[in-house]
Write a structure and sequence with these properties.
Elements: H1 6-18, H2 26-38, E1 42-43, H3 45-52, H4 57-69, E2 73-78, E3 81-86
Helix pairs in contact: 1-2, 2-4
Length: 87
């Protein structure tokens, strides 16, 4: 897998955080930036919760679903956790 360079990560983060053409919740925006930095690692919901400080599992699942439905991420579920691929 090709890792994103720092400039690409910053530009994608800016687009999502400040590009209000995209209708995403604040939690989904914050989660997206966290996933950009994580770069396709195996992550459990507990780890994502710690990284993002989104404490509610329901809220976290909603943010993940929101990003999936809007084609910002692709989720591959494994028995060890999920792989979140930023698109």
């Amino acid at each position: 897998m090709i890792a994103m360079d720092e400039k690409t990560i910053v530009n994608k983060a800016k687009d999502v955080m400040f590009g209000f053409k995209v209708k995403l919740s604040a939690n989904a925006r914050f989660l997206y930036v966290a996933l950009l930095v994580a770069e396709n690692e195996f992550l459990t919901h507990t780890e994502l919760s710690e990284i993002t400080d989104i404490k509610s599992p329901v809220t976290l699942r909603k943010a993940i679903k929101e990003l999936e439905e809007n084609a910002f991420i692709e989720v591959t579920r494994t028995r060890y956790g999920q792989i979140y691929k930023v698109l």
